[in-house]
Amino acid sequence: MTKEDYLSGQVLLIDKPLEWTSFQVVNKLRWEIRQAFNIKKIKVGHAGTLDPLASGLLVICTGKMTKQIDSFQGQIKEYTGTITLGSTTPSYDLETEVNASFPTDHITPELIRETTKQFIGEIDQFPPVFSALKKDGKRLYEYARAGESVEVKSRRITIEAFDITAINGTAVDFRVVCSKGTYIRSLAHDFGKALQSGGHLSALRRTKIGDFDVSNGLSIDDFIANLPKE
């Protein structure tokens, strides 16, 4: 693609690696595009944050296509991952250490699959306290890391599909199709509760946003390799 292509607007599909923030990916791509084409300024943004501990599809928009970010963010998303039963963490994932353990002897594969039905359709979900949502000008994770309690309001979300793809002891692999605003970490936590146990998210990968599929995405290195060199 040319300099004009990026400035007029492109939609880039990137397969985000683990431990990168979505913000870091945007900054890296913006810098690489500017260097490749000697552009002083170009708009680059992403259509939906992925946590550092999640991999998968990031939809990156450049130039005039950044105006479409809101419409992309509103589209249905698909995730795959693993819920580990029998323990919880304050962040609902592996960002924090296990803080409580629970029995799992009563949990059968049949119970696991039956319990998914409780989460299909429109449900009320509480976002994790370790999240980037803002309250009174501060991010929720800032309160959480400071040990301050804060009231978090539930939000209405839709789960279109919640499929169990494998069960290996306390590790439960899943596929979820859901609306904007869904926290898979919260789903993992609530799923553990519904099983009269505990649960936390131990792996997550975003595979689709609307019609965009991670199978068509490029790694950051491959994207950079495709840019023109001086």
Describe the protein's topology.
Layout: H1 3-8, E1 11-16, H2 22-37, E2 44-46, E3 55-62, H3 69-73, E4 77-85, E5 87-88, E6 100-101, H4 109-115, E7 121-125, E8 134-135, E9 138-139, H5 140-145, E10 155-168, E11 171-178, H6 184-194, E12 199-209, E13 212-213, H7 220-225
Parallel strand pairs: 3-12
Antiparallel strand pairs: 1-3, 2-3, 4-11, 4-12, 5-6, 7-10, 8-9, 10-11, 12-13
- What separation lies between the terminal Cα atoms? 15 Å
Q: How many strand units?
A: 13
Put simply, the count of helices is 7
Arithmetic mean of pLDDT = 93
State the helical fraction. Answer: 10-25%
Q: Specify the oligomeric state.
A: single chain
Catalogue the unreliable spans.
Answer: none
Structural class: alpha+beta
Shape: elongated
For the biggest sheet, the summary is:
9 strands, mixed
* Helix-strand topology string: HEHEEHEEEHEEEHEEHEEH
Gyration radius (Cα, Å) is: 19 Å
Strand content: 25-35%
